[in-house]
Inverse folding.
């Protein structure tokens, strides 16, 4: 990595933003696991926390995918601009290599978003079951 522009062109800025969002959402989900565990110790106090739900996680996961799409779209635009400056006989190779590099942010965002989405679904399932058990026995 020789300069910031090369770092940007390789998708580094977008991939770092996606990674930071992933770490933040992972932390939020771990906090929710802790809340679920504490619910078993003190159900009445924690029931209010379970009722609030988690609106932030799906929004941030969607934001990660959108950042990946933005990075990929900008990468494809830069590829088309760069293809204008190379000889015609090297177009196929340059377009193939550039297309793969431009797709990195999108692929990374999906690799981060899919497990978080699945984890969010599992946590929602356990929260709903726990909430129904508490309300049933309260």
């Amino acid at each position: 990595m020789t300069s910031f522009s090369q770092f940007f062109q390789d998708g580094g800025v977008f991939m770092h933003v996606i990674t930071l969002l992933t770490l933040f959402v992972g932390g939020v989900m771990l906090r929710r696991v802790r809340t679920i565990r504490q619910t078993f110790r003190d159900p009445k106090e924690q029931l209010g926390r379970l009722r609030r739900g988690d609106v932030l996680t799906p929004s941030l996961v969607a934001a990660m995918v959108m950042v990946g799409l933005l990075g990929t779209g900008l990468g494809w635009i830069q590829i088309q601009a760069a293809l204008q400056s190379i000889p015609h006989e090297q177009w196929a190779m340059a377009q193939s290599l550039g297309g793969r590099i431009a797709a990195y942010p999108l692929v990374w965002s999906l690799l981060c978003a899919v497990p978080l989405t699945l984890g969010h679904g599992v946590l929602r399932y356990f929260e709903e079951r726990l909430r129904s058990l508490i309300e049933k026995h309260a």
About this structure: The helical segments are 4-9, 12-41, 43-52, 56-83, 91-137. The CA atoms of residues 7 and 13 lie 7 Å apart. The first helix runs from residue 4 to 9. The mean pLDDT is 80.
